[in-house]
Design goal:
269 residues; two-stranded parallel ribbon; pyridoxal phosphate binding; alpha/beta; 6-stranded parallel β-sheet
């Protein structure tokens, strides 16, 4: 009797753990080459796509290897983990991006160290962040998170709620809106995944038509290890890639993305 291979084992085979500077350099080069190829397929300039390596669950000693290989910014889902790594790796020239859901009681931590916050989806969080940032005397780049898959387990605004949300954000002058972020549906069906990315692009385009200033540069943060090439084809300007750079992680995805079953960097085949 055969049994299905656990998703973690499949991911481990697909994404071997990087344990040296050479491993990281090779993985980074491969991801960048794939980004470039995807961009060129649709007539885009690869330079318009930013690679954000995601280091969640990765220990500090391996992060140091990744930085030595060229990583200069890192994304983390959990504020507590990000803040700890920021302290422990303070000697490194790294900008930290918080890309996971934020509770208002963690706003002070984000305001203290983050270079950007990619999961803004409530005015309560906007107000809490702005208050802390005003006290610190600094601004913060933010992305508005949109739930493009209509899954109840996902955080983010419904697309229809985005215009009213954007209209309120100028009240929080320390927040600099850069664009939008989404998590696509966790599926092996590429067209379902692609549809999510198209929804985000449409949200951006409609918002830009109403008030170009409300969306800043109008960046689109979408795509992870399993689907970043599709995201680039659909207009992503930032892709958040973890396992394809660092290797498969054993931590259950539900710890970072509530309600998920497949790999949190994309569907595991």
């Amino acid at each position: 009797m055969s049994h299905p291979t656990p998703a973690a084992d499949v991911a481990a085979g697909r994404y071997p753990t990087a344990t040296s500077v050479e491993d990281f350099a090779r993985n980074l080069a491969d991801v960048r080459a794939r980004i470039a190829a995807a961009a060129e397929r649709v007539g885009r300039d690869p330079a318009d796509v930013r690679l954000l390596p995601v280091s969640k669950t990765v220990p500090g000693e391996r992060i140091r290897l990744a930085v030595a290989a060229g990583c200069r910014e890192l994304g983390e889902n959990k504020v507590q983990e990000a803040a700890r790594k920021h302290r422990e790796l303070a000697d490194l020239d790294v900008a930290w991006s918080v890309i996971g859901h934020l509770q208002t009681n963690k706003a002070r931590d984000v305001a203290a160290f983050a270079a950007e916050f990619q999961a803004l989806d409530s005015l309560r969080v906007a107000e809490a962040l702005d208050r802390r940032l005003q006290a610190a005397g600094r601004p913060l780049d933010v992305y508005v998170q949109v739930n493009t898959s209509a899954e109840e387990s996902k955080f983010g605004l419904e697309p229809a709620a985005v215009p009213d949300f954007l209209a309120e954000l100028p009240r929080y002058s320390a927040l600099r809106v850069r664009g939008f972020m989404t998590l696509a549906v966790f599926s092996d069906d590429e067209e379902r995944v692609r549809a999510c990315f198209r929804v985000l692009r449409d949200v951006r385009d409609r918002a830009r038509d109403v008030d170009p200033d409300a969306v800043g540069p109008g960046d689109l943060s979408m795509g992870m290890s399993g689907d970043y090439e599709t995201a680039v084809e659909e207009g992503a300007t930032c892709v958040r890639v973890g396992q394809a750079i660092f290797g498969a992680r054993a931590t259950p995805d539900s710890l970072y993305w509530p309600g998920t079953v497949a790999s949190d960097d994309g569907p595991v085949p």
